[in-house]
Design a protein that fits this description.
Elements (H helix, E strand, L loop, with lengths): L8 H23 L20 H10 L2 H18 L36 H37 L1 H15 L3 H9 L8 H27 L2 H8 L4 H38 L10 H8 L8 H28 L5
Helix pairs in contact: 2-11, 3-4, 3-11, 4-5, 4-7, 4-9, 4-11, 5-7, 6-7, 7-9, 8-9, 9-10, 9-11, 10-11
């Protein structure tokens, strides 16, 4: 029988070359690291789960409300620290010959009833408002968070006692309390006003912190830490506090703008800051009798106060939306 035709040497060589090439490619693929697969939702490109704070920062950077309010607040902080950078004059330098005059070269906001430059006083008034707002917020957040966290964590008689104390403070009208308490203070600094705001402001933060701690205690990781023998201080500081601080930050950020408005209100009523201190509340109070003849002296400090309070409230709303998982 005729034998089957033999393949040519070139065909054999070609087949062997193809097999060798395929083998080489297979080895190369085996040595090549696998491509990173996209992680699940809520994870970074490396596959690690993102934390609440990283998610919140990512959302804040994409929120135009946060960007606008943050820029306004940064500008306010800048002029509060260095007011002479944009207003070289002295806020206490007045000229009665120019009283109630309108805008002039170098004095874009005009003059008030005492002949003081409204622009300079408006710029320097930001220092008082920012100082009172920031210091009062820090004091309220610290005192309220500590008392509320202890009440929510230990409960029992301490919780009941603190709840009754907060009820008493909630029953005190803020403005009336300021009229009574600050009317006997003779100091001309911002510290009596800050102390008054802390005294009446901590119950709100305390209740928020108490509720957040009670909610965090029910999580499994807290129960596991307690079962492993962790001390109360370690559980409170390492496991509960980082997960209960978000509501406190949101409420404190919104309250900061409220405290600035409260300082201006008390200064307007004459029981907060007093001349020669520079404050938007003092300027609004001094310009009120001249609203018909010199409305500019009232509008500019009032506008600065309104923009400042609105910026902090907008910032608090943006932070709340970013830190509240229910809103995602």
């Amino acid at each position: 029988m005729p034998e089957p035709p033999l393949e040519s040497e070139g065909a054999v060589a070609g087949t062997g070359g193809a097999m060798g090439l395929a083998t080489t490619e297979a080895e190369t693929l085996e040595q090549r690291p696998p491509a990173a697969e996209p992680g699940p939702a809520g994870a970074d490109p490396a596959g690690r789960p993102r934390s609440l704070w990283s998610d919140a920062w990512r959302d804040l950077r994409r929120n135009p409300v946060f960007i606008v309010s943050a820029l306004i607040i940064l500008f306010l902080v800048f002029i509060a620290l260095w007011p002479s950078a944009i207003a070289s004059g002295s806020p206490l330098k007045c000229d009665l010959a120019k009283a109630q005059q309108g805008s002039a070269p170098g004095h874009p906001f005009g003059y008030d009833g005492q002949g003081c430059d409204v622009y300079t006083r408006t710029v320097h008034g930001a220092r008082t408002s920012v100082a009172v707002g920031v210091c009062a917020t820090l004091g309220v957040a610290l005192l309220g968070s500590v008392l509320g966290a202890l009440a929510g964590f230990f409960g029992g008689p301490w919780d009941s006692f603190l709840s009754r104390i907060t009820d008493v403070f909630f029953a005190i009208p803020v403005v009336l309390g300021g009229l009574v308490l600050l009317s006997v203070v003779t100091s001309n600094s911002v510290w009596p006003v800050i102390g008054f705001i802390v005294l009446l402001g901590w119950p709100q933060i305390s209740r928020i912190a108490r509720g957040a701690v009670i909610t965090a205690q029910q999580n499994d990781y807290v129960q596991a830490a307690r079962a492993l023998g962790a001390s109360n201080s370690r559980i409170l500081l390492r496991h509960i506090a980082p997960n209960a601080v978000a509501p406190v930050i949101v409420v404190a950020t919104i309250a900061l703008g409220t405290y600035i408005a409260l300082e201006a209100t008390l200064s307007y009523l004459g029981v907060g800051l007093k001349p020669p201190s520079v404050s938007w509340g003092i300027d609004i109070s001094a310009a009120s009798p001249y609203i018909r003849n010199a409305p500019h002296a009232l509008l500019w400090p009032s506008g600065a106060l309104a923009i400042t309070v609105l910026a902090f409230i907008m910032l608090g709303d943006a932070v709340r939306d970013a830190l509240d998982p229910k809103l995602r």
